[in-house]
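Collaborator request log, item 7. Partner lab (contact: R.S.) asked for a structural prediction of CD209 antigen-like protein E to inform their binding assays.
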Amino acid sequence: MDNENLYKSLEKPTEDIYTALAQILDRKRNKGAKAHINRVKRDPSSPSHLEECRDTETVIRESPSKTIWKGILLKLLFFVCGALVATFIFLVLYYLTAFKQTYNNDKLQKNESFTKKELKQLQSQLEELQQRNNELLSKLEALDEQCPITNNYTQSRICSGCPAGWVLFNSKCYFFSTDKMDWYLSDADCNSLGGHLVIIESYEEQQFLKNEITKRGHGKSYWIGLTDCQTEGRFFWVDGSPLDSHKSFWDTDNNGGIQPDNWKNNGLSPKGEDCVHLQILPYSSGWHDGFCERQEKRICEAATQTITLNM
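Returned to partner:
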């Protein structure tokens, strides 16, 4: 144990010598530096002191300039950044506005197109409704004509109908033939249809028949149910009623001739003209007596078929 301690004591002196030497050198350097500083402080005219003053003055002179440039650069940097931010915001707002406007324009165009389409459909529907309304009005007029209201309180109607091919007028049905027969066969044919040769009882009925004959074009001569076969000059209707002179519509020709004239064809027809037909000519119109054997068209008359409707 004593040997080990002895050995250690022999090793440590070497290390302690080097350590002590380093500490002595450091102390000398520090003392020299302090002495130099003190000399400079005591002697302002020394070169070291002057050099240090110049360096300090240079730093003092240079510091404000650098500060100013730094401020300018900083402001410029802020300005550029602000400009970039403002530009970015402007571009964002611009494109958002443009996008919104484009979207609104597209929406308006779609709405306009849709509105035009709807308007066209509504116009088409309106035209259809107007057409239906006109048809209903026409049917209502026909209903009023064929089914007049007999009681305004109950709104009940009596409907008068005519067979197909017949024409309704004042609750009577009229048939205008296209083929021709003599007067007797014409009356028999009307009887087979449930009627008789027409009996004209008013000026309105006469005008109605004239208008209907005019619509049918050429061959404007039709047998009516009037004759003086029994007694010459005394005319009777097919139902046996005598002709009312105040309700007769004889024709007067351009030569001053007055119907009936009972023309006997220069003696070839001794019986003369005993049957009456309604004749429509460009220069005159009215009743004419004629030979009963003549082939003419005919006008048949029949009562309407009535149905009572209680509304």
